[in-house]
Design a protein that fits this description.
Alpha-Beta Plaits, two-stranded antiparallel sheet, 3 helices, globular
Length: 103
C-alpha cells in the first residue's frame, strides 16, 4: 500500500449530533472517505495517520438529495462514510488546533 494513496483515502471527520454521541458512547469515529476506498485501506490510513489501533470499520454510501427550484431539478452527488471503531484506551482528539506554516 502506497503512502500517497493512504493520504488520499480520508477526507475529513464527519461531525454531527449522531457521530458525536456515538463517539462518546462506543469509541467510534466517523470519517468522510473516498468512494473507491476499501475497509482495509481506511483501517491502514487511520492506523498510520493517527497512531491508534482500529478494531472494526463499517462503511456506507450516503445517497445525494434531489433539489427542486421551479423547473430546475438538481441532485447532490453520493458520498461514502466510514464508522471506525477504536480499541479501548485509544482516542482521536479533533479539538486541538494544528499549526500550519502559511507563506
Amino acid at each position: 500500500m502506497f503512502n500517497d494513496r493512504l493520504l488520499r483515502v480520508l477526507y475529513f471527520p464527519h461531525m454531527s449530533e449522531k457521530s458525536s454521541s456515538v463517539m462518546e458512547k462506543c469509541n467510534v469515529v466517523v470519517f468522510s472517505v473516498k468512494k473507491t476506498s476499501t475497509k482495509s485501506e481506511i483501517k491502514n490510513a487511520v492506523n498510520s495517520l493517527f497512531s491508534v489501533d482500529v478494531c472494526n470499520v463499517r462503511t456506507l454510501i450516503v445517497k445525494g438529495k434531489v433539489k427542486k427550484r421551479g423547473k430546475n431539478i438538481s441532485k447532490c452527488s453520493n458520498w461514502k462514510k466510514a464508522y471506525v471503531t477504536l480499541a479501548s484506551g485509544h482516542s482521536i482528539d479533533f479539538t486541538t488546533k494544528i499549526k500550519k506554516n502559511v507563506y
